[in-house]
From TrEMBL:
This is UPF0102 protein I5L03_08570. PANTHER family: UPF0102 PROTEIN YRAN. It comes from Aurantiacibacter sediminis. HAMAP family: UPF0102. Belongs to the UPF0102 family. The lineage of its organism: Bacteria, Pseudomonadati, Pseudomonadota, Alphaproteobacteria, Sphingomonadales.
């Protein structure tokens, strides 16, 4: 039951993050893209940049600081390697971003969060 609630909140967070990105001029190209290496929550494109985005929702703003770590980012990066060629064309920049969400606060967008 707890897992189902977390899954539902995660999906809602991804929807909110996608809507927020669209307001900022991003075009959403993919949601919940599954690869053998893992899942990419959102894929968005704007002005020659393709961002592969990990979305984290926490019930308390204070918990956002611990929502993402190097291990999770490395899994997203591995998933990106598997599908980047399907979303980015030559000359476009590719990056891994993170969007952190909590009730009552603006989304926190960490640009280029993964630097191997």
């Amino acid at each position: 039951m707890k897992r189902q609630l977390a899954e539902k909140r995660g999906r809602q967070g991804e929807g909110r993050a996608a809507a927020w990105l669209q307001l900022k001029g991003w075009r959403i190209m993919g949601k919940r893209v599954r690869t053998p290496a893992g899942e990419i929550d959102l894929i968005a494109k704007r002005a020659g940049i393709v961002a592969f985005i990990e979305v984290k929702w926490r019930s308390k703003k204070a918990d956002l600081d611990h929502a993402i770590d190097e291990y999770r980012l490395s899994r997203v990066a591995a998933a990106v390697e598997a599908v980047a060629h399907n979303y980015a064309t030559e000359g476009e920049d590719i990056r891994v971003d993170v969007i952190l969400l909590a009730p009552g606060s603006m989304p926190r967008h960490i640009v280029n969060a993964w630097q191997p």
